Amino acid sequence: MRVKFWGTRGSIPTPGRHTLRYGGNTICVELRTDAGQRLILDGGTGLRGLGRALLQETCPLDFHILISHTHWDHTQGIAFFAPMTCPENRITIYATSGTDRHIEEIFAQQMDYANFPVSLEERHGQVVFREIGEEEFIIGNIRVQSCFVNHTILTLGYRIHCGNVCVVYVTDHEPFAPSLYRSDVTDPGLDDIVHAGDRKHVEFLTGADLVIHDAQFTAEELVNRRGWGHSSLEYAVEVCVAARAKQLALIHHDPDRSDEELDHLEAAGQAYARQLGSDLRVSAAAEGMEIKLNETVEELATPGTAQAASVEARHHARILVVDDEPAMVQYLTTVLTRDGYEVLQAMSGYEALAVVREQSPDLVLLDVMMPEMDGFQVLQELRASEEFRDLPVIILTALTAEQDIVRSFEEGVTDYIDKPVTPAVLRARVRRWLLSRDNR
Ligand SMILES: [Zn+2]
Ligand SMILES: [Zn+2]
User: Which candidate, 57, 109, 193, 332, has a CA 20 to 30 Å from the CA of 63?
Assistant: First the structure.
């Protein structure tokens, strides 16, 4: 398999003398198997160059583009993808919608008359949109698993298998907790990961030959950029080491990062992996860079059943907000009603349990520190009952200590978010759990 980077930048294209070597185009990665099958990961402005290169090949071509999410730095190249103008070509775009709109509608809007001169309908190539969630599917001789990651809108990471080769692509993902491992353990393993979301993330990366991972910031920079939905270099290295991945390509470079700074980042990442006792190879992805991975043919396993059955967001889902501070209840209600949810409110633990029993919400957002009955007691009551054992409960709290996060998962919470939370992150996390409520 051959992996080629056509765009490596995050957020916005950054042409100029300071980005000549690593490139200024936004994210686009091409995977080509030894059998000649092709997958495209994201459609940032780098997709334009890939499209021009593909014009040299004879029609008809069959393209599969896996989109992580619909932010413009991952989709802006779609309108400029030249193979889309050839009637014989067939293009399938896989994506998840972070809103109630279907993905076709979101892409059509990008090419609306006010934004672009040629509409999606006027394109001659056959374009098919496939809206996906967390699932497993086959494209030719490639097996793809998708997994929700932690961003400001619903975002998918992809785990791609072909023969014996495994490539994982994760961009626009923020660590769930400030540190990966519990600090009270000397030789930490998978069970010592603080947040269940980070543990699932490591599992998703397990044994990969190549992980292409967001590393927009350093750990120091990330402290003041929590809620922006991105990883640090250190986190990217730590999760790859924990997952025993062989190679890491850093991507989604910050627009302010110069070539020299990226050289330093690459060296720092490599040194950090060594410090952790790993022989993980670390490189900063550069436009035009190619990575070859040795493929041996293996029987393609039949896909498992989809892990998350539905990608239809529950438009009219009912969400219970529990907090003893009226201003917080009001704030959360305002944010959630933007997505059309019905919001129920409770100002105490007792009230929360009564509302759950009477009105059976689809999801609960639960504060911890409340007088008389705190969030942990509410959670215990819910998990002890047959009826609400699997009800998604997200703790939303000002408690950020590691032991509070660990305890919450031990008590059976679905997710843990610390305050303050941005409206975008809250909407993404809530939608994620409404889509796969049995995935705790
Ligand atoms: Zn991005
Ligand atoms: Zn994004």
Answer: 109
How many residues in total does the chain contain?
A: 440
Please tell me the distance between residue 172's alpha carbon and the centre of ligand 2 in angstroms.
Answer: 5
The CATH number given to 2-292 is 3.60.15.10
Q: Output the tens digit of pLDDT for each of the chain's 440 residues.
A: 999 999 999 999 999 999 999 999 999 999 999 999 999 999 999 999 999 999 888 778 899 999 999 999 999 999 999 998 888 899 999 999 999 899 999 999 999 999 999 888 887 778 999 999 999 999 999 999 999 999 999 999 999 999 999 999 999 999 999 999 999 999 999 999 999 999 999 999 999 999 999 999 999 999 999 999 999 999 999 999 999 999 999 999 999 999 999 999 999 999 999 999 999 999 999 999 999 999 876 655 554 444 443 455 555 899 999 999 999 999 999 999 999 999 999 999 999 999 999 999 999 999 999 999 999 999 999 999 999 999 999 999 998 889 999 999 999 999 999 988 999 999 999 999 998 744 44
Ligand 2 centroid – CA 118 distance (Å): 25
Q: Separation of 299 CA from ligand 1 center, angstroms? A: 35
Residue 69 CA to ligand 2 centre (angstroms): 7
From the CA atom positions of the chain, what is the Rg in Å?
A: 22
CATH 3.60.15.10 range(s) for the chain read: 2-292
Place of tokens 């309908």: 121
CA–CA distance, 310 with 280 (Å, rounded to integer): 36
Of the listed ligands, the closest to the CA of 154 is: 2
- Report the separation in Å between the CA atom of 252 and the middle of ligand 2, taken as the mean of its atom positions: 10
Report CA(114)–ligand 2 centroid distance (Å). 23
pTM: 0.94
- Output the DSSP codes for 311-373: -S--TT-EEEEE-S-HHHHHHHHHHHHTTT-EEEEESSHHHHHHHHHHH--SEEEE-S--SSS
176 CA distance to ligand 1 middle (Å): 17
* Nearest bound ligand to the CA of residue 44: 1
Distance CA 43, CA 67 (A): 7
User: Measured in angstroms, how far is the CA atom of residue 75 from the centroid of ligand 1?
Assistant: 10
Assess if CATH 3.40.50.2300 describes domain 318-435: yes
DSSP 202-228: HHHHTT-SEEEEE--B-HHHHGGGTTS
